Amino acid sequence: MSTPIEIKPEEIEKKFSACCGGSKQDDIISPDEIRTQVQVYYADRALNAKSCCSGDPGGEALYNPDLLEDLPKDISDFSLGCGDPITLAHLQEGETVLDLGSGGGLDCFLAARQVGPGGNVIGIDMTSEMLSRACLAAERLGLSNVEFRQGYLESMPVESAGVDVVISNCVINLSPDKSKVFAEMFRVLKPGGRVSLSDIVANGELPEAVKKSMEAWGACIAGALQRDEYIRGLQDAGFVDVRIHAKDDSGVVLDKLPTKTLFSGAITARKP
Q1: Domain count, the chain
Q2: pLDDT one-digit tens code per residue, 236-252
Q3: Three-class DSSP labels, 172-189
């Protein structure tokens, strides 16, 4: 597995302060501006087959190769994530899985294999170009237990209490209103349902220039919650057994990470 993403504060501040079309430091960025920037950013990647997040790692850098077996390379290589929520979720046959920000569909396709023909996988994304790419890929793979829906994570087009597992891969950090996302996750899950997320998390306050940069929002940086904020947000929504670990199998302890470090977090929680 990949090691935590360690970005020194002076490096991210230099990259995103007052450049590349970023906002002025005293500007207030509206939720609509953030959504528009994110849509433009990911529409470009959908059309130009670019991965994202920390050096464009691609699927092979994030997943056990066994998960990607027999997938066409253009599908397995198109990863917009920062981790592996599939292995973390321990999916079972017959479960219904909801993927938040499904992008090109890779995590949906991996989940569909594990839940089997008796299960169901729903992908939500707000970007039309991503949805088109995902639907074409699903058709190529002949998957009948996967569907994609257009919508915002703050108002999911999914019925209440109908999902066994919510997964997401480096997307919740892009939302301008994460409390609504957490509340929606809780709403759509069945009692006893669980959450399996990979997301960029901050271990300390990010520089103001970064938090107010439009480019940094699209790059999965500006919207990263601090670890304690992430835990508190899920708990406030009603979740229990909330855990966040650095995505590293070498035993990295969160409390020992440098402050103002961004890391790829493996996040789990449960609906009572």
Answers
A1: 1
A2: 999 999 999 876 544 44
A3: HHHCCCHHHHHHHHHHHE
